[in-house]
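Dear Dr. H.,

I hope your travels went smoothly. While you were away I took the liberty of generating a structure for the chain from your last submission, since the lab meeting agenda had it listed for discussion. I wanted you to have the full record in hand beforehand rather than looking at slides cold. The sequence, exactly as received, is reproduced here:
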Amino acid sequence: MELYLILKILFIIGVLIALYAILRNLDVIKIILIYFKDKLLGK
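The corresponding predicted structure, in token form, is as follows:
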């Protein structure tokens, strides 16, 4: 039972890290898209 609890905690931490990484990547992708839009409209 103790091992199950430890695995569950590790799984939750892993999911939180994955969600954080996805959100950070979405911010980077959004910045890149805005940059390209400004470059195209700026010409």
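Two observations you may find useful: The longest helix spans residues 2-42. Helices lie at 2-42.

With kind regards,
E. W.
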